[in-house]
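seq as requested:
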Amino acid sequence: MAKRVLAAVDTTPRAPRVVETAAQLAKQLGADLVLFRVVDVPQDYPPAAATQGDTVAPAMLATAERELMDFAATEHVTATTRVVASHEPWRAILDAADAVHADAIVLGSHGYRPVVDRILGTTAARVADRAHCLVVVVHEPRS
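struct tokens:
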């Protein structure tokens, strides 16, 4: 059985630490590393625009893919990358972890929506509560 670590990487300053932590964990476990990013295409982006030659969504996905490959190069690791568009990052992370049969998920603790996060919970909390594998939440280093 192949072991896999899924690193859910966002665009926050914490992202490099998430990748570094995931790479170290994958190395310790002798696991494959999967770098994953959820791209939230703005809700005011009309779905029909994608079929009329507008390249906003595909460009956002391609940029995210390049950024993940840059993270892998920075960490000097071999990793596969996956990028999906979703308005529910927590659900997309769980789906990706299930799809690759991840043994662990590594993600940052940052929340984007203070009011909503207080009511519904952060992405990290939702993933940790529902995951079928180990979840590692990366926090800011202590000063």
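Residues 4-138 form a domain with the Rossmann fold fold (CATH 3.40.50.620).
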